[in-house]
Amino acid sequence: MAGSVSKRLIELRKTVPEGVELVAVSKFHPASALMEAYSAGQRVFGESRALELEAKAAELPPDIVWHFIGHLQTNKVRKVINHASLIHSIDSERLLRAVDQEAEKAGRRIGVLLQLHVAKEETKFGFTPEELLAFVTPELLSSLKAVDIRGVMGMASNVDDDARIRDDFREIRAAFDSLRSGVMAGTPDFNVVSMGMSHDWPLAVEEGANMIRVGTSIFGEREY
Ligand SMILES: *Cc1c(COP(=O)(O)O)cnc(C)c1O
Question: For the whole model, what pTM was predicted?
Answer without folding.
Answer: 0.96
